[in-house]
Amino acid sequence: MTTDPVLPKIVLLGGAHLDRVARSGVSFVPRASNPGRSRESVGGAAFNAARALARFGAQTHLVSARGGDGIGIAVESALESEGIGDGSLTWLDRRSASYTAILDETGELRAAIADMEIYDLLSPRSFRRSHLRDKLASADAWILDANLPDVSLTHFAGAASGRPVFGIAVSPVKVLRFRACLPALSALFLSRTEAVSLLCLSKDTPLPDLAEGLFSAGLRRAVITDGPNPALILDGSARHLQATPQISSIRDVTGAGDTLAAGAAFELLHGADFVSAVRVGMAASSFHIEAELPLDSLLRCRLRAASLPPATPLA
Asked: In terms of DSSP H, where are the helices of the chain?
């Protein structure tokens, strides 16, 4: 845990790229042209978490990969604007990563395409540069997302030297990259869909079986979200269900889980128990879904978390 009550140092490794999000303005019809609106912004799991942490007051440093193109320039500018340290590696002859999402009229994800081959270049060897080694060595915690190759996830999970290492699943396909290092993670943040994919289980698997499967796989702490349904919190041998905050309106669900992970990690570094930390993370996620995580977000998230009903043991 950090000894500084306000400014923990956190290094995040993973995705920082262009998000293209299109939302239908009418009841969504699959395999058809739907009128609506689209927007572009910088996103990625590691970037989303770093932005939330920076707004909580943490000292953040992000290490990602980008190409020598306009997207790369936009990512660099966004990191500077958010006050996030930039340790990204650039390959001038490569295309930067992008994520294209299609949302229905309620803001729920219907389909997405991840163009992210450049992240495969983030091998353990690519992190040996002295300035990156110094940042990693001085950090209070690391956050890894599954845009990294599995060999890099395993490397960093095993090289933490006692500091907390948190994982963000990213997608049902990419979460499989965490399989070899689950016991070394301090916590993993994933959706129900990602959890059943990780365990090769049916989408209808009951929550007690899901929790037992993650525990048997070596994971000691995890948060499994399921949209508006209660989140499953795995804390050692204890399993809890936590109701989600009321959402006044849905702006965008993209990045909500990353924001949850950031809030929970921040609170854990300040001595909170895991369930309390997750509640603050869920509050931060709800702000993100509604509009935008405010700059004075920490106190507001703690107040919203305090208004949530208590977590209940999983039957």
From this structure: 45-56, 70-82, 130-138, 150-158, 192-199, 207-216, 256-269, 274-290, 297-306
Residue type, 147: N
Report the candidate in 216, 261, 239 with the shortest Cα–Cα distance to residue 53: 261
Comparing CA positions, the residue from 6, 288, 21, 90 lying closest to residue 280 is 288
Q: Considering the chain, what is the average pLDDT of its residues?
A: 94
CA 244 vs. chain centroid, Å, equals: 17
Residue 167 three-state SS = strand
How far is Cα 292 from Cα 289, in angstroms, rounded to an integer? 7
Name the 3-class secondary structure at 183: helix
Distances (CA, A) of 12 to 205, 213, 214: 32, 27, 24
Alpha carbon 141 to its chain centroid, in Å, reads 14
Cβ neighbour number for residue 249 with a 10 Å cutoff: 8
DSSP element (H, E) containing 144: strand 141-145
**pTM value?**
0.92
What's the rounded Cα separation, in Å, for the pair 57 and 71?
A: 27
The number of angstroms, rounded, from the C-alpha of 181 to the middle of its chain's C-alpha atoms is: 17
pLDDT, residue 182, reads 97
Band of residue 179 on the pLDDT scale cut at 50, 70, 90: very high
Model pLDDT, residue 4: 44
Helix 297-306 vs helix 45-56: angle between axes, to the nearest 10 degrees?
Answer: 90
| Cα–Cα distance measured from residue 272 to residue 24, given in angstroms and rounded to the nearest whole number | 40
> Tokens representing 80?
């500077």
